[in-house]
Amino acid sequence: MDKKLMYPKKVISQLGAVDYYDKFIKDAAANKLFNTLKDTIDWLQFPITIFGKTYLQPRLIAFEGDPNIHYTYSKTRLKANKWSPEILQIKQACEQQTKNLYNCVLINYYRDGNDSMGWHSDDEKELGKYPSIASVSIGAERLIHFRLRNKHQDKTKILLKNGSLLHMLGPTQENWQHQIAKSKRVRTGRINLTFRFIQA
Fold first, then answer.
1. Which residue from 29, 33, 53, 126 has the highest number of Cβ atoms inside 10 Å of its Cβ?
2. Neighbours of 154 (CB within 10 A)
3. Each residue of 60-79: pLDDT tens digit?
4. Which domains are delineated in the chain?
5. Which pTM value belongs to this model?
6. How many CB atoms lie within 10 A of CB 47?
């Protein structure tokens, strides 16, 4: 992680706050980290039911955190595995940069452009009213799209580069949704680490 003071690009300032840091992790370190996580994490793939039909989620996931932390989303309940040394180091760097504490991380592995995540907000009750979510991307560049919940034509997007940090805070999850859409142009993998604080 680059230890210099970093200044964010403001992605969203209306009805929320989303800040983007371009080179949170330098390229060489990010590339090494991607390969380490890809090969050492025990990846899982869960089913999801949409309009009465059940499919495997189009990405792999893992969950790490403090002891006895659980997280439920899309009717899937996860128990945190213990922190790996590499991810614990990133967590600490995120806490220093964002001035927020995190006790878990949801890790998504998008194997190529066919893997995706649909429109959603990270608004589960255990995250609290205004959660701080630090999202670190390593690997292939992917677009993240945002839209207002009550006015879908109001949209914005940003290219998440290798080693970048996207910080979502304030009322962002209350007012905005986001997605990672499929992309025929992307043929390599991306790992996304979203650090959160789950309230007891």
1. 33
2. 13
3. 999 999 999 999 877 788 99
4. 9-196 (2.60.120.590)
5. 0.94
6. 11
